[in-house]
Design brief:
The chain has 5 helices and 88 strands. By secondary structure, it is mainly beta. Among the domains are: 81 residues, Immunoglobulin-like; 244 residues, 7 Propeller (Methylamine Dehydrogenase, Chain H).
């Protein structure tokens, strides 16, 4: 999904012949002479720039010097005559001429300010922004005034020559010295060979460009490669010797960018080789993870990215929308593959769920503006102020909306020469159970947009997650592809005037294709000259739609390796330089994959030595030249409060044997408590030592040669360097790799080292309850290999080890309940093998010897406790590999298996008891591994019958856990499940009669797979249930109920590498709020303190 790779190309428009002369009082003089002035405040005289007989430009500077800082406070100019009309100058540039050669070199010289153009009744006005520049003593600077054209100015030139008028400044002794030179420049306006200009080249299409050719009459068709390009009516260049063809580029094939102009008979009138190569790598390469050294340290929940040159320096910057109210970000390209954070300086503050930032020139002034898609709020429009800083003009330039937008894409849909855009809306904001509607916003030519959906976009609702503009039928306009979430993909055909026909289904069997399509990439995959579509699917296999012509497509799943990849985004580019489009799959729950095209549209993974990725929760991929070396690099936007990733293309070389550090996860933590981190790299060995801020990492655990874990000590502040010493290797030092940050208000704190200490791995479950009568909750951990462990609470929220009777069984699940009615909690164990165990509690923190219970003999997965028969005591239900087993509590007689033919022989993993149908008894919901959810209704005496069709059928779910609560406050129980593997967690809303529907994304946006357990609790003490899900890998998730939806709250939980099998809410420190205890399966268990109420 999201914006395809975009490459910035800047072309110098050489300057007009100019006569720069002094016209007023002051220090300037003509004829090449100059005056040297040392001043506190310097107004420069009005200046005449004469541009042949067609017109002149009158202007004035106002400079002032304060100490060693020179400020441009104002620049005003007026164009007189007509020369600016056809040139389409977008601005003049005030440039620091680094090498003082009086010629503008975009690669060397620095643009200080853009002197923007405004049209008025009096003519064309040019205005300059305020500029402040500090001058260094003894470091002279020369400034140039050069022309920067719009797309229509191909080949027109303002030619620079030595002696061209300039402003020079030199700092001496702490004060700047200003030189104003007036000189005559030669040259003439002319059209030479055909010239091409484009601000950006987007391989998926939508780029604005222009072509100027010496011959234009008779051109009826313009081709790029084999594809027709829609061009607007050409007009004559200023010297009448050539013709300008403004155009909207279609998706571009890889390889050289060559244009051909044909007449009505197909005769070639001209050919333009732009010298550009589109979307191509430099041959076989490997991609090196440069995230730690190239990107600023960050941890914002990035679920998308796009690329654009916001500040006009010729380098592509990275735009990152941040979810859940966090601030959107901009990574400014510093050159050489290094980026700095500029979001706070360049973007307005916005607390919203931004899901996509679309670069476009909204107001036609030649710089890049931004349109933002906001999930569940007002979409936004920002205008560039000329230097990358954005101004929010939504109120005056956008119609009001409250759509649940997931994507936004720009293109000139109606052929009027300006950029319009469309939004993909996942749900209807008035009824989240329904799909939304794609909306079309039309540009009025001045950067103001109106909702043009009526009569132009079919009104039927769709659950569109991603959309792409492309000319699929080759008729010169852009059509619209819709990737839909849980529905078939659709194609809308453009009639050339921005009106889209009813959608066409794209698959051979479209009614069966209802996967969660999250992304699409458009390109010629099989080399037949037309546009195909690669569809990324989160649940299910991604696939190719092959273009058969005439807007007919064939679904083809044989082109990709079989199996699910949990794909959130796909992108196409020629990464190996062989002339065809390769594919990148940004995956969650599985490593991202780079696939090589064989030239016929068949894909296979690149070798691991070329690219390998950790499980990064990748949400988006952008392919562009990040470091300016001509090769395509990879940027991956990462979800889950972790560092985004940058992979730089490097020549193919043998694997490196040196030790390296690539990632620190998390790269931040609170100063008050230790932080558990994972360090990823290469060639780690036993005995590796790590220091953070000069303090040693404690409890180091070496998983393998590329991963180690440990605790960063508390007590630090600010950013800290990372030092790693691997035996037999040089010391590695990474500056500012970790940051001590005060967590947001209400965020949980990991107090494990202070409260619990080191805990064994392989913990499968945890239960909490007061076992010794002191009023504080104690903990029992169920161990996958060691049985169970007891931890007893002591005051101030601390814990000490307790003891349990010896047992040989492992513990898949532990549960505390008073099963014998003596008001003392007993311990139930569902073992991995053998019969269940019961340990009767003594009330002092100790237990009787284990008793074996009747029922399942070959182990069980979980136990649920409740009064099933209404006799006042607690009965038991066990989940097994076969049918569920119910044990009826018969008091002093013990437990008896209660036969039931209703239970299905499933691979059951999770159980939940609750009154689903409102008849006053406890019903049973069972989550099954790779089987449907099942509901068994209680007949009142513990006798169950299956309620068939109670839950929507979701094949492929791997449900490990189920929990019940009245989430939406309607008086009946709803159900949440934790899905492992590549499936998402789910929320089902009950109707109180034994039927459930899946909550739409407007109510619950599910977390990624790997789910282990879901639990409900009132975390924020507002009276309604909140939801926590623990995960086997990746981040855990906390959702708070607010405004009719369960909203995830990033940053509220400590970041971990996952590996948690179970969790429980309990008030460990007796401060009145719920803390979290997690059972660590791959790492130690955790205790997270809720700071809502301090003890």
């Amino acid at each position: 999904m999201r914006v395809p790779p975009m490459l910035r190309a800047r072309f110098l428009l050489p300057l007009f012949p100019l006569l720069l002369a002094s016209c007023g009082s002051g220090g300037g003089s003509g004829g090449g002479s100059s005056n040297l002035l040392t001043v506190q405040s310097l107004p420069l005289p009005t200046t005449l720039l004469k541009a042949d007989a067609r017109g002149a430009l009158l202007g004035s500077f106002f400079l002032e010097a304060r100490g060693a800082t020179l400020r441009l406070r104002e620049f005003r100019a007026e164009v007189q005559g007509s020369f600016g009309k056809r040139l389409h100058l977008r601005n003049l540039l005030l440039v620091w001429d680094r090498d003082a050669d009086q010629r503008y070199d975009p690669k060397r010289d620095l643009v200080l300010a853009r002197l923007g153009i405004e049209q008025s009744k009096q003519g064309t006005l040019l205005r300059g922004p305020k500029l402040s520049r500090r001058l260094l003593p003894g470091k002279p600077e020369r400034w140039l005034l050069v022309g920067d054209p719009g797309p229509g100015a191909m080949g027109a030139s303002l030619s620079l020559s030595p002696g061209f008028g300039s402003v020079a400044a030199e700092g001496r002794g702490g004060r700047p010295r200003v030189v104003f030179a007036a000189a005559r420049a030669g040259g003439s306006l002319r059209v030479e060979a055909p010239v091409f200009r484009a601000d950006f080249l987007a391989e998926s299409g939508g780029s604005r460009a222009a072509l100027l050719a010496p011959r234009g009459l008779g051109v009826t068709r313009l081709l790029v490669g084999a594809r027709t390009v829609a061009f607007e009516p050409p007009f004559a260049s200023a010297d009448k010797k050539g013709f300008v063809f403004p155009m909207l580029l279609p998706p571009l094939p890889p390889g050289p960018l060559v244009f051909r102009g044909l007449d009505a008979k197909g005769k070639e009138l001209f050919r333009v080789d732009t010298g550009r190569r589109i979307g191509a790598g430099k041959g076989p390469a490997r991609f090196v993870d440069a995230s730690l050294t190239s990107l600023p340290r960050s941890h914002s929940f990035s679920q998308d990215a796009s690329v654009a040159d916001l500040d006009g320096d010729g380098l592509p910057d990275i735009l990152l929308p941040s979810y859940a109210g966090q601030r959107d970000r901009i990574l400014r390209n510093l050159g050489g593959g290094r980026f700095e954070e500029k979001g706070a300086a360049w973007l307005p503050a916005l607390e919203a769920d931004t899901v996509h930032i679309e670069p476009l020139d909204a107001d036609g002034d030649g710089d890049i503006d931004l349109a933002l898609a906001v999930e569940g709020g007002q979409n936004r429009l920002y205008l560039n102020q000329g230097d990358g800083r954005m101004k929010d003009v939504t109120a005056r330039s956008m119609p009001a909306d409250g759509d649940f937008s997931e994507d936004l894409r720009a293109a000139d849909v109606d052929g009027d020469g300006d950029m319009d855009f469309a939004t993909a809306n996942l749900v209807d904001p008035k009824d989240p159970r329904k799909g939304g509607r794609v909306r079309l916003y039309l540009n009025q030519g001045n950067g103001r947009f109106v909702d043009g959906s009526a009569g132009r976009i079919p009104p039927q609702p769709t659950r569109t997650y991603d959309l792409e503009f492309a000319d699929f039928d080759g008729d010169g306009d852009v059509d619209l592809f819709l990737a839909n979430y849980g529905e078939p993909c659709l194609l809308l055909e453009n009639d050339g005037r921005g009106r889209f026909a009813p959608p066409s289904l794209l698959a051979l069997a479209p009614t069966t294709d209802r996967g969660f399509h999250t992304s699409a990439a458009v390109g010629d995959l099989d080399g037949d000259g037309d546009l195909d579509v690669l569809v990324g699917t989160f649940q299910g296999q991604s696939f190719v739609l092959r273009n058969r012509g005439g807007l007919r497509f064939a679904e083809d799943r044989t082109r990709l390796p079989a199996g699910e990849m949990s794909t959130y985004d796909v992108a196409l580019a020629d990464l190996d330089g062989d002339g065809d489009l390769d594919a990148f799959f940004a995956n969650s729950n599985n490593p991202s994959v780079l696939m090589e095209n064989d030239g016929k549209g068949n894909f296979k993974p690149f070798p691991k030595e070329a690219f390998s990725s950790p499980d990064d929760k990748a949400y988006d991929i952008e392919i562009f030249d990040a470091d300016g070396d001509g090769a395509l690099d990879l940027f991956v936007a990462v979800w889950g409060d972790r560092q985004d990733a940058l992979y730089l293309a490097r020549p193919k070389t043998p694997p490196q044997s040196a030790a390296r550090v690539l990632r620190v996860e998390p790269n931040y933590g609170p100063p008050s408590v230790p932080t558990y981190v994972t360090i990823r790299g290469a060639n780690f060995v036993k005995g590796t030592q790590v220091w953070v801020g000069g303090r040693p990492l404690t409890g180091i655990s070496l998983w393998n040669s590329s991963t180690l874990n440990g605790w960063i000590p508390a007590g630090g502040s600010g950013e800290a360097d990372l030092t790693v010493l691997v035996p037999g290797h040089p010391k590695i030092r990474v500056p500012a790799a970790f940051g001590y940050e005060v967590p947001p208000k209400g965020a949980f704190l990991d107090v494990t080292p202070l409260v619990l200490g080191a805990e064994p791995k392989s913990t499968a479950s945890v239960a909490a309850g007061d076992l010794d009568g002191d009023g504080l909750p104690d903990l029992v951990f169920g161990d996958g290999s060691l049985g169970a462990r007891l931890r007893l609470s002591v005051p101030k929220g601390l814990m000490r080890k307790g003891s349990l009777p010896q047992m040989s069984a492992s513990a898949n699940e532990v549960e505390l309940a008073d099963v014998n009615g003596d008001k003392k909690l007993d311990l139930l164990i569902a073992p991995g093998a053998g019969a269940p165990l019961l340990l009767l509690g003594k009330g002092d923190g100790s237990f009787e010897k284990p008793l074996r219970l009747p029922g399942p003999k070959n182990g069980s997965e979980e136990v649920a406790v409740g009064d099933l028969d209404g006799d006042g005591d607690l009965d038991l239900v066990f989940a097994t590999d076969g049918p569920e087993v119910v044990l009826r509590n018969e008091g002093k007689k013990g437990f008896r298996v209660l036969p039931s033919a209703a239970f299905v022989d499933d691979d059951s993993r999770g159980l939940a008891l609750g009154d689903i149908d409102g008849d006053g008894d406890l019903d049973l919901v069972v989550s099954n591994f790779k089987q449907p959810l099942r509901l068994y209704l209680n007949g009142g005496k513990g006798i169950f019958r299956e309620q068939k069709g109670a839950f929507p059928l979701r094949r492929g779910d791997q449900s490990y856990s189920v929990a019940l609560a009245d989430v939406d406050g309607d008086g009946d129980l709803d159900a949440a499940i934790a899905n492992g593997g590549a499936q998402v967690n789910r929320l089902f809303l009950g109707d109180g009669k034994g039927r459930f529907v899946e909550a739409p994304l407007g109510v619950f946006r599910p977390s990624l797979g790997g789910g282990a357990q879901v639990i409900f609790g009132d975390v924020d003490l507002d009276g309604d249930p909140d939801l926590f899900s623990s995960h086997f890998w990746g981040s855990n998730h906390l959702y708070l109920w607010k405004d009719g939806r369960l909203s995830e709250k990033p940053g509220m939980l400590p970041t971990t590498a996952g590996g948690f099998a179970g969790a429980v809410f309990t008030d460990l420190d007796a401060d009145g709020d719920l803390d979290l205890v997690l059972a660590g399966f791959w790492g130690g268990s955790r205790i997270w303190k809720n700071p809502l109420r301090q003890p």
